[in-house]
Amino acid sequence: MEEDVGRLGKAAAVIGGFLIMVGMILLGVFALSLFNMFDPRFFLEEDVQTVLMWVLLVVGLLDLASGFILLKR
Predict the structure, then answer these.
(1) What is the Cα–Cα distance from 67 to 60, expressed in whole angstroms?
(2) How many domains are there within the chain?
(3) Alpha carbons 57 and 55: distance in angstroms, whole number
């Protein structure tokens, strides 16, 4: 049983690291658009919106899973 808790902790750390990386990417996109180095209107295209929607859904589900793992721990 203790081995399962250790594995869950490692999984939560991996998922947490992934979410931190995604957050840094989003902050980078914001900074680039703030300094007019990136055109945020690119995200208004329908194909890009669909991909972005799925990416945000997956990130949200991973965040929820890591929250449950940490709660269980």
Answers:
(1) 10
(2) 1
(3) 5
pTM, entire model: 0.57
> Cα separations (Å) of 16 from 3, 19, 60?
20, 5, 12
Max CA-CA distance within the chain?
53
**What would the DSSP string read from start to end of 25-55?**
HHHHHHHHHHTTSS-GGGGGSHHHHHHHHHH
Domain boundaries, position 13? 2-72
**What does the pLDDT look like over 13-71, one tens digit per residue?**
777 888 888 888 889 888 888 898 888 788 788 888 898 889 888 888 887 887 777 77
Which residues, including other chains, have CB under 8 Å from residue 26's CB and lie 6 or more apart? none
Using CB atoms within 10 A of its CB, is residue 16 exposed (0-12), middle (13-18) or buried (19+)?
middle
